[in-house]
Amino acid sequence: MKINIRSVFAITALFAAAISQATSVALFADGSENPAFDYLSNRGYDVKYVTDEDIASGYAGKFDVLFYARSTASFGSDLSEKATAQVKEAFRGNSVALFDDLTDIFIDKYDGYDVAGQLLENSINYAAKTKGIVGEFRGAGWLVEQGYIKGESGYGSYSESYNPHYNVQPDHEVMKGIDKEYKYSDSVDYTWITKGISKENVLAYDVNGNVSVAYGTTQAVPEPMSMLVIAGGVAGLLRRRKNAK
């Protein structure tokens, strides 16, 4: 049997192109591990763990989306000031806040029947289109605190197991394919409490009226140096227009 070398190269090139087009996800998990890593990797995403130092150095900015989660054993931690500044510089696209402890559902063997998988993928895809951020639990609260989603962030709260959640914007890209009333398969549900989030930014509530999912397109205020660069660019444009008259 003769092997066509050109065909081999063509197949290899197509395979390499498919890999290169995979959505790249920088996953922050308090310097530890998160079960969503394996889930997303198995679904074809190019996922890498990043630390606070990686984010602060600008390395995470090379990825399509930042997934701000936590280690399974923690409630999550804040990013350092330097890392926060780098996030605001690198990730200016859509943001999705998943206020439930969504990723715990992927622990051990995940059978794929839970709505959490669809919700997580929808969120990652939506944010990645515009180089944005997905925050889970404490990470979702951080998005509110930093102004990506307008409102106030509070604290984590215990909720009874298998409580229903309500999809209030089923036509939104993040909520596509999610039933109007849905439940997670996890036996324990924690929610990061918020208040003051505009109804137009809320995608889902839990049975207690807490926000489960929200999104934002409003970007956090750039750092002072960024504002100077922007101001300088505008001033230069105005000078050029004046000289052209």
Q: What can be said about this structure in brief?
A:
This protein is an alpha/beta fold and 245 residues long. The chain has one domain: Rossmann fold (3-Layer(aba) Sandwich).
Number of domains: 1
The CATH topology annotation reads as: Rossmann fold
Q: What is the end-to-end distance?
A: 74 Å
What is the helix content? 25-40%
Report strand order across the widest sheet: 2-1-3-5-4-11-10-7-8
Report the CATH architecture: 3-Layer(aba) Sandwich
Largest sheet report: 9 strands, mixed
> Which structural class fits the helix and strand makeup?
alpha/beta
Specify Rg, calculated over alpha carbons. 20 Å
| CATH C-level class | Alpha Beta
Order of helices and strands: HEHEHEHEHEHEEEEEEH
Strand tally: 11
Mean pLDDT: 82
The fraction of residues assigned to DSSP E strands is: 15-25%
- The global form is globular
User: Low-confidence parts, pLDDT < 50 over ≥5 residues?
Assistant: 5-20, 223-242
Number of helices: 7
